[in-house]
């Protein structure tokens, strides 16, 4: 009995040694912190005029972003210190809580600009769809890992997992959040594919998805307006395409070197809410092509680091979580940049770690903490 106890203690000490703080991927951590620092600076620069006009305090959004950044970093430190395997036990409860929040927001949520996406709790607001993205990642990782023998089948594999993702997507869509709905389904497709799902099965859903997306766009006049304005943005420069045209002006006037930090003209009440989804345009105006390129390269570095962590993960569960988390970040960044540059229709997708937004920032940093914990337990460290 004592021999078993001593053996158990030795294994416990080895596990603790294996997941020491020094074993995290510091490259990923540094990349995220640099991105976060740039985001805080650019939120202040882009929001000062708007905040002064709307809130009579030029520091309003800057101070709130710093507070949320601190909360997010604390959350990242917590998730970084928790063994990611414990989420296997927590995931069912997280799924139930997320579904409850997505339902509650439909009845108790705050309606802003025609969409009901936020639950207000006193001075704070919470966006359940931001939580849903990462809970879906944990849930799919758990199911795919447990049902390894089912992934290559059509009904029990691809169809089953897409159905799980669709259950999240439908509730998010009910709050008129098509952009996050699309992201949720795209992340699910990525996870199913890397989990071993057949490409032919996934491709068979492309026509169905395209028809559904087209119908959803046609169903809401404002979505149809965004799509038609994307096809010809110069047809209505002061109406449907106003925000996109202001983005073009910002990016074009920035040139290669930019006008200088704080010197944007478009943020002076020309660009609607410049600190949110179109903050990349202000970055282009103030920091130029060089600044935009640096941001893109930084995201590429973070994605490469995330994929590297996934490849080195100790088990398939860690691999799937890593791919899911980095897919959420990568897809959002790609969509945001594409929207700002006029490469796809305007949609409300913030740039991760840079756009203003407390819920998004906190959950993104919390998810990075999980990724860092997976990096602690990589195959290389487990030798």
From TrEMBL:
Gene Ontology process terms (BP): cell division; cell wall organization; peptidoglycan biosynthetic process; regulation of cell shape
Stretches that traverse the bilayer: 26-46, 66-86, 93-111, 131-146, 158-174, 180-197, 202-219, 278-304, 316-341, 353-374
Membrane topology label: Multi-pass membrane protein
Pathway: Cell wall biogenesis; peptidoglycan biosynthesis
GO MF term set: lipid-linked peptidoglycan transporter activity; peptidoglycan glycosyltransferase activity
Pfam families to which the protein is assigned, alphabetical: FTSW_RODA_SPOVE
Main location: membrane
Subcellular location: Cell membrane
Keywords: Cell cycle, Cell division, Cell membrane, Cell shape, Cell wall biogenesis/degradation, Glycosyltransferase, Membrane, Peptidoglycan synthesis, Transferase, Transmembrane, Transmembrane helix
Reaction(s) this enzyme catalyzes, per UniProt: [GlcNAc-(1->4)-Mur2Ac(oyl-L-Ala-gamma-D-Glu-L-Lys-D-Ala-D-Ala)](n)-di-trans,octa-cis-undecaprenyl diphosphate + beta-D-GlcNAc-(1->4)-Mur2Ac(oyl-L-Ala-gamma-D-Glu-L-Lys-D-Ala-D-Ala)-di-trans,octa-cis-undecaprenyl diphosphate = [GlcNAc-(1->4)-Mur2Ac(oyl-L-Ala-gamma-D-Glu-L-Lys-D-Ala-D-Ala)](n+1)-di-trans,octa-cis-undecaprenyl diphosphate + di-trans,octa-cis-undecaprenyl diphosphate + H(+)
Family: Belongs to the SEDS family. FtsW subfamily.
Classification via PANTHER family: CELL CYCLE PROTEIN, PEPTIDOGLYCAN GLYCOSYLTRANSFERASE FTSW-RELATED
Name by which UniProt lists this protein: Probable peptidoglycan glycosyltransferase FtsW
Gene: ftsW
């Amino acid at each position: 009995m004592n021999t078993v106890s001593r053996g158990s203690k030795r294994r416990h000490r080895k596990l603790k040694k294996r997941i020491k703080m020094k074993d995290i991927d510091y490259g990923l951590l540094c990349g995220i912190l640099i991105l976060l620092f740039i985001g805080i600076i650019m939120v202040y620069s882009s929001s000062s005029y708007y905040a002064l006009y709307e809130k009579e305090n030029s520091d309003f959004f800057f101070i709130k972003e710093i507070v949320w950044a601190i909360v997010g970093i604390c959350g990242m430190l917590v998730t970084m210190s928790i063994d990611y395997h414990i989420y296997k036990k927590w995931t069912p409860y997280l799924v139930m809580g997320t579904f409850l929040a997505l339902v509650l927001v439909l009845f108790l949520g705050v309606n802003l600009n025609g969409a009901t996406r936020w639950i207000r709790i006193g001075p704070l607001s919470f966006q359940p769809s931001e939580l849903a993205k990462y809970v879906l990642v944990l849930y799919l990782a758990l199911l795919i890992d447990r049902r390894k023998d089912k992934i290559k089948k059509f009904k029990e594999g691809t169809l089953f997992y897409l159905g799980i993702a669709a259950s999240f997507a439908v509730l998010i869509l009910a709050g008129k959040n098509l952009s996050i709905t699309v992201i949720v389904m795209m992340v699910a497709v990525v996870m199913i594919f890397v989990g071993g799902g057949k490409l032919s099965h996934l491709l068979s859903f492309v026509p169905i998805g395209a028809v559904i997306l087209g119908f959803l766009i046609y169903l809401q006049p404002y979505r149809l307006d965004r799509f038609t304005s994307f096809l010809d943005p110069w047809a209505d420069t002061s109406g449907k395409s106003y925000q996109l045209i202001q983005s073009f002006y910002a990016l074009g006037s920035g040139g290669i070197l930019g006008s200088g930090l704080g010197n944007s003209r478009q943020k002076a009440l020309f660009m609607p809410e410049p600190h949110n989804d179109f903050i990349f345009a202000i970055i282009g105006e103030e920091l130029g092509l060089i600044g935009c390129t640096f941001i893109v390269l930084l995201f590429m570095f973070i994605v490469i680091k995330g994929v590297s962590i996934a490849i080195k993960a100790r088990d398939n569960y860690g691999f799937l979580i890593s791919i899911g988390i980095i897919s959420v970040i990568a897809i959002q960044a790609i969509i945001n940049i594409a929207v700002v540059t006029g490469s796809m229709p305007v949609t409300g997708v913030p740039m991760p770690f840079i756009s203003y937004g407390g819920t998004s920032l906190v959950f993104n940093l919390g998810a990075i903490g999980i990724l860092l914990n997976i990096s602690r337990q990589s195959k290389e460290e487990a030798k």
